[in-house]
Amino acid sequence: MGRLEGKVAIITGGARGMGASHAEVFVKEGAKVVITDILDGQETAEKLGPNCTFMKHDVTLREDWERVVKETDKLYGPVTVLVNNAGIAKLKPWDQTTDEDYDIHYRINQLGVYLGMQITAPFMIKAGIGSIVNISSIAGMAGGANALPYVATKFAVRGMTKAAAIDWGPMNIRVNSVHPGVIRTPMTMENPDVDKSLVEQMGELSPLKRIADAIEITNLVLYLASDESSFSTGSEFIADGGQIAGF
Ligand code: NDP
After folding, report:
1. Which residues line ligand 1 (CB under 6 A)?
2. Which of 29, 112, 209, 237 is the most exposed, having the fewest neighbouring CB atoms within 10 Å of its CB?
3. Tell me, what CATH number does 108's domain have?
């Protein structure tokens, strides 16, 4: 029996990167999975077979969330796992950061997570069980250069995870945050705002002396999505090769 047998999961930003890796493992472990993205994720979903469906979705829009959650309910039953994974990182020096830069980080990385939790919660309450995994970052634990809006929103995700865990714990809904270090995905390797040599250098400076592959975060997300983590809620789970352990 798979570790996610009987679960219905929504994974945002699932067309590529870490979200696609989570979807692949979730399906293998027996979950029914809806991947959502503003990019086209049809191909990613088709590769994973009938237990995976792609839905176009902008996480900043309440009406998109309502549609996705209702359609998921019709297709597979009430959502019992939400992975709030969609996110952006546009790194810029503080004096070149515009209000628009701040606003777009807020809308995708912070408001998107809030809407996802608020709109899925009634379905999880109906199901009598739920696990919400909010993808923050080590930038939600410590500051970083050229990343004011990114850091602000990732700290917000960490904070709202705890508030939600308190509200929904009595309804058997667990809410935890995940804090990856530097991971090899399109966000780090194909992002014009990110210096690739700096990315590798950050890995070399960490205790494990490397950056990681998406699967190393997927394994943690899988644990949190499954009933194996049944007594964990409102907590922070870091997977960063020791990067923020100290110096
Ligand atoms: P990717 O950029 O590879 O994947 C994220 C996906 O989310 C993209 O397909 C992206 O589309 C999509 N997305 C962006 N905006 C929206 C939106 N409004 N609605 C729906 N989907 C959207 O990123 P990663 O896989 O690297 O990152 C996943 C998560 O992990 C993010 O929250 C990120 O902040 C976090 N993280 C990543 C780290 C890393 O080193 N890679 C480290 C720590 C945390 P588009 O390309 O159009 O933006």
Report:
1. 12-13, 15-19, 37-39, 57-60, 85-89, 108, 135, 137, 180, 182-183, 185-188
2. 209
3. 3.40.50.720
